Amino acid sequence: MASLIFWLFFFGLVNGAFAVLPMFTMKYGLSPDHFELHTSFFTIAIGAGLLVGSLMGSVLAKR
């Protein structure tokens, strides 16, 4: 049980690092004028990557 909680905590940290931090970087550093547009494109790319990765992972796990 402790191992499951640890990995969920670890996944939350990784998810935050890859999803939230780039959005703050865009808002306050890279593109403060158009960060809403860039954030929506970034979110679509992250979602597509997670979907493709989970599909590929399930296919590879069946082998």
- The low-confidence parts are none
Q: Could you tell me the radius of gyration in angstroms?
A: 15 Å
Largest sheet: none
The ordered string of helix (H) and strand (E) elements is HH
Helix tally? 2
Strand content: under 5%
Distance between the termini: 28 Å
Q: How would the global form be characterised?
A: flat
Class by alpha and beta content: mainly alpha
Number of strands: 0
Mean pLDDT: 85
Structure description:
By secondary structure, the chain is an all-alpha fold. Helix 1 runs antiparallel to helix 2 (35-62). It has a domain at 1-27. The longest helix is centred in the N-terminal third of the chain and has 29 residues, at 2-30. The model has no long low-confidence stretch (mean pLDDT 85). The protein contains two helices and no strands. It is flat, with a radius of gyration of 15 Å.
Question: Summarize this, please?
Answer:
The chain is an all-alpha fold. The chain has 2 helices and no strands. α1 (2-30) packs antiparallel against α2.
Key phrases:
mainly alpha; 63 residues; flat; 0% strand
Please render the helix and strand layout as text:
Elements: H1 2-30, H2 35-62
Protein name: Major facilitator superfamily (MFS) profile domain-containing protein
Organism: Bacillus safensis
Transmembrane segments: 40-61
